[in-house]
Amino acid sequence: MYTTSVPTTAKVKTDIQRIKRILDAKWWLQYEEVDLSMHPERREEMLAGSGSLRILPQLHANGQVRVSQARRPLLQQCTH
Prior knowledge:
single chain, Glutaredoxin, 3 helices, globular, two-stranded antiparallel sheet
């Protein structure tokens, strides 16, 4: 999961917290959180895996990119 500890909006912060709560509730599920503000060198990896999508947070799973429901309209704008 790609996140940032320096969110630009309250919405981004809320989305990150929500996804982390969901993932943490699944105690058997392991995931890696990549904080791009702490590890900017991993940004290219995120962009390559998402087709250059810059929306945070991003969850990459099984070759697919997931973003929060509320951000899907923005995702559609970015991919068309």
